[in-house]
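Hey team,

Filing this mostly as a record. A colleague (T.K.) asked me to run one chain through the structure pipeline before their review meeting, and I want the input and output archived in the tracker in case anyone asks later how it was produced. No errors, nothing strange. Just documentation.

Input sequence:
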Amino acid sequence: MTTADAPRHLLPAGAVVAPVELSIVIPAMNEELTIAEFVDWCREGLAKAGGSGQILIVDSSSDRTPEIAVAHGAEVLQVPKRGLGRAYIDAIPFIRGRWIVMGDADLTYDFRELLPFVEAFKNGADFVMGSRFRGSIESGAMPRLHQFFGTPVTTWILNTIYGSRFSDIHCGMRGLTREALQRIDLQSQSWEYASEMVLKAARLGLSIAEVPVNFYKDREGRVSHHRRAGWLSPWIAGWINLKVMLVYSPDTFLLKPGFLLLFVGLALTLMLASGPVRIGPMVFNLYWMLLGLTCATLGYSCIQIGMLARMLHRLRPGVTRRIRAVVTYDRGMLLAGVCTVLGLALGGVLLSNYVAGGLKLATIWHPAILGLLLIILGFQTFCFTLLIEMTQRIAPERPA
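Output structure:
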């Protein structure tokens, strides 16, 4: 980090830098219209919730937002404009609370009502998600496309993939313990931080609570950041969040279908290895065998990608260790060699028959299709074994 990129920490007059119970951490950019009242809301919310608190504004403004925030009693961390997720990452060394509540400085979320979050923390929650759908949404606060399509659909997708029960994954007001923030190890630099936090909380098995929040429309004269960026901005944000959902846990939707495809593919291929099979009126022939080869190949690929994903993301404690205990280099190379040799042997028989028949085949020899499958699976196993071995050197397992 260069000197120009180093954060600048501004403190209000009389501030005491000491551990507190609750830190309110808010990224802000050019919010001079709302920042004064927002900080006042936070102070009111902290007073209602009781205990000590910190208001930390992570600012990348070109207007008077930081000066106004400090004048009203907030700490300001001035950082370069590098994305919403990056703002939270930059703030981590300056957070003094054991509980953290995040949100926006535009007065769309009611930070006068922090008590439900504090109560959830006291009841043992590690991650507390706000829900606008369980609270209230002021008329005009959320575009109808977002309210009735975008947010419900992406929430359903994440819940389906990760087995969670959130009602509003895009709610900007959320909280977590400092320990949970460290375990989540936030990596996203932009809008996708929201989905990364939610899916990691679910995958890491954190204790999750959901509390209702009130969502208000923009104040007169303020234009939201999405509208400032143009009509395409919400679609880009949705696409980025969907990408994060898929990238962080492909094992969830690849492993089970992969095992099913592999089983069906092997069953079809082995059943037809000696020739066509008739079951009642149906005749299973070469085309069914080729379908089996395709299913087995795709299924095996899904399984391998799913296992690699679990090892690389390390969101399931102990999974990497168990995979490496089973998929060793020696076993992988032995299996790859056996499959390849058997496949080449069956292919060699076909080649011999082809040459003996004057470079012609009178009939289809089905075992050769099984040989092709074995060669493909052998090569896949060889490559997968090398990748597993590489991960032990590139991404060794971290302590839980």
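Quick notes for T.K.: The longest strand covers residues 127-137. The chain has a mean pLDDT of 89.
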